[in-house]
Amino acid sequence: MALKVPDLGERKLVNLLRLNWGTLQAGLFIADHVPANGDTLATYVAIEASFPGYARVDVLNWTVAADDGAGRARTAADLITFTRTVSGVPQFVWGYFIVDPDGVQLWAERHPAPPVRMEMAGDVFRISPAFTLRSEL
To answer: Is residue 29 a contact partner of residue 94, using CB atoms and an 8 Å limit?
Structure first.
């Protein structure tokens, strides 16, 4: 048996989640890591960015869930910009992770291109956090 959630149900479930997950935070990871099912927050703390100016950022203003055109319900948050403030030893950003208010790592996403070099003051890394849900059928 497989769970079938109709399109309207997918959107409703995503909206219930986004309205109840509290203020999430986004962080960056700086190792060549492919997010995996067994990952925890400790996985990402061990490889978290530490360049000057870096801090986790609140993820704000999630949209009302809508169909994304590929059969998924999708919500997205405001664009987040991480900016290096002082030049120095480079760090290479491979992706981002999301943490809930209880300190649980909810998801992570690897950057689709090569890692982004953060070395000079003013270097930026931007993410557009999004969450999708699709029925098994």
So the answer is: yes
Name the residue type at position 40. Answer: T
State the residue for tokens 């997205």.
Answer: 76
> How does pLDDT run across 69-107, given as a tens digit for each residue?
998 999 999 999 999 999 999 999 999 999 999 999 999
34-66: pLDDT as tens digits: 999 999 999 999 999 999 999 999 999 999 999
Instruction: Check: CB of residue 80 under 8 Å from CB of residue 49.
Output: no
In this structure, what token pair is assigned to residue 82?
């991480």
Token readout for 117 is 């070099």
Residue closest to 128 by CA, chosen among 92, 83, 101, 98 = 98
Based on its alpha-carbon atoms, the radius of gyration of the chain, rounded to whole angstroms, reads 16
